[in-house]
Amino acid sequence: MADLKPFFDSHKESGFPVNIRGLIESCGLGLNDSAELHNDIAGQIERLESNLENSNVEFKISTSITLTPEWKNFVMAHELGHYVLHESLIGAGLDDNVAFFSNPEGNYNNQNIGPKQEFEAHVFAAKVLMPELEVDRFFQHYLASENIDEEIQPNVHFGVPESVIAWWLGVLKEKSKADTLRD
Ligand SMILES: [Zn+2]
Question: Quick check: 33 and 75 in contact, CB under 8 A?
Answer without folding.
Answer: no
